[in-house]
Amino acid sequence: MATDSPPNEIAAPAPTVDAGRLLDRLAALAEIGAIEGTEGCSRLAFTDADGAGRDLVVGWMGDLGLDVSVDVIGNVIGIWRPDGCDPDAAPVLTGSHIDTVATGGRYDGNLGVLAGLEVIETFASAGTPICRPIGVAFFSNEEGSRFAPDMMGSLAYVGGLSVEEALATVGVDGAIVVDELDRIGYRGSTPCPGRAPHAYVELHIEQGPVLEMAGTRIGVVESVQGISWTQITITGQSNHAGTTPMHLRRDAGYAAARIGAFVRDLAVDLGPPQVATVGAINLHPNLVNVVAASATLTVDLRNTDDAVLVDSERRLGLFLDELADQEGVTITSRSLARSEPVTFDPTVVGLVEAVAVDLGLSTLRLPSGAGHDAQMLARVCPSAMIFTPSRDGISHNPSEYTEPADIEAGTNVLARVLLHLAGRNR
Ligand SMILES: [Zn+2]
Fold first, then answer.
1. Rounded CA separation 416/351 (Å)
2. Distance from the CA of 119 to the center of ligand 1, in angstroms?
3. I want to staple 280 with a disulfide (CB 3.0 to 4.6 A). Which of 26, 80, 298, 328 is the partner?
4. Ligand 1 centre from 200 Cα, in Å?
5. Do residues 146 and 173 touch, judged by C-beta distance below 8 A?
6. What is the distance in A from the centroid of ligand 1 to the CA of 372?
7. Does the structure show a pLDDT above 70 at 335?
8. pLDDT digits over 205-261, tens only?
9. 167-204 confidence digits (pLDDT tens)
10. How far does residue 395's CA lie from ligand 1's centre (Å)?
11. What value does the mean pLDDT of the chain take?
12. Cα dihedral 147, 394, 108, 377 sign
């Protein structure tokens, strides 16, 4: 790893990428699973559309002369080993994913994968010398909307999920991963977990409004928020809304509303980057003139500092106990998901920032509020991410959009960072 030189000592400038060529590839990939009348596409993991998208990208990898391998869970890596590089050295890896949600946009993970190909094509045409191979990966089932968990391929790649378990996963439609991989022809033979890269850098759209609001071109991603999802069930007493005096009520609806207000106050009290959301609520019997007998709601808590996230969970728990006492209701809760925050490698993060500044681009350090393959790779090698702005903060939606100039800027930053990491013998 490049810890022996300060990140502001940047290797020779990389040649400039061809944004038009990259946009053409993004458009061609978006044709597969295109959602009629929109710019978006639908390529759920391991469907025919995912298979066709994979075929297209693997074809491009072949055109570029990359060594393409497919592992047993369908992760695909294309490695560029031009003359002059040490072919056996651990590659510098970039990439992302090409599966989408059911109503996805054309950028999301596709950008990171196709930007990686664009960087290699640019280096190859310019004869840019590198010492280490550069690889482009697309990891299986990042989205997780058909098969849980999300980031399945990258998690298995780093040994966080067994291949047997991943292959046996049953989807929301009853399909099984192994059958689907066989059907689309992407159950490969390369072993998984895979070889740890020298470093991993992922370009991705922000999927949030922060960069656009700040008028910033490049997001320097320092960390990924930890996520805590809890489902809360409140049981009270159903009763007549007109005849039951207020002091005699055991109102599950009111208790649910108090929880919504509490988590909002909690996030404000803890301050950024803490966020808290009650995103789903169900009342029973859900009638205008009946005090609710029961309520089910979800709480989503996120922070980049695990100690603060744990504290927010603890304070929510204390509040639920108090609330149950005060309102005469029963409250139970169960964890739906919990992931720890991830801090990216400070040297690679600093490199991303230094490269962007050197290219005259405005930068902002920020955490990622969404999960990404890079957080899995961070377990096995120095990793970081580059964000480009998302118009109106919209993603996972056909109207997801990033300005061509921002795509170009993000890809040029990626090129320089990859060249710095791969361009010197270490
Ligand atoms: Zn993504």
1. 9
2. 19
3. 298
4. 15
5. yes
6. 6
7. yes
8. 999 999 999 999 999 999 999 999 999 999 999 999 999 999 999 999 999 999 999
9. 999 999 999 999 999 999 999 999 999 999 999 999 99
10. 9
11. 95
12. negative
**110 contact partners, CB below 8 Å, separation of at least 6:** 26, 29, 30, 96, 98, 100
Task: Quickly tell me which residue has 């997001």 as its tokens.
Answer: 219
Q: Give the tokens for residue 44.
A: 């759920």
3-state secondary structure of 388: strand
* H or E element at residue 150: none
pLDDT at 182: 98
Q: Are 124 and 134 in contact (CB under 8 A)?
A: no
Spatial contact of 50 and 143, defined as CB atoms under 8 Å apart: no
Cα(149) to centroid of ligand 1, in Å?
14
| 87 vs 12 pLDDT, higher one | 87
Other Cβ atoms within 10 Å of 5 Cβ, number: 14
Closest residue by Cα to residue 108 from 394, 336, 404: 394
- How does DSSP classify residue 351? H
Average pLDDT over residues 112-139: 97
Rounded Cα distance between 167 and 163, Å, is 6
CA of 207 to the centre of ligand 1 (A): 9
Q: Following CA atoms 7, 11, 16, 19 in sequence, which dihedral angle do they give, to the nearest 10 degrees?
A: -40
* Span from the CA of 143 to the centroid of ligand 1 (angstroms): 7
Residues paired with residue 34 on neighbouring β-strands, in sequence order: 41
Type of residue found at 285: P
Q: Which tokens belong to 315?
A: 């304070």
Judged against a pLDDT cut of 50, whether residue 3 lies above it is answered with: no
User: Is residue 277 classed as helix, strand or coil in its secondary structure?
Assistant: strand
pLDDT higher than threshold 50 for residue 7:
no
Token digits of residue 34: 């295109």
CB neighbourhood size of 325 (10 A): 10
Centroid of ligand 1 to alpha carbon of 150 (angstroms): 10
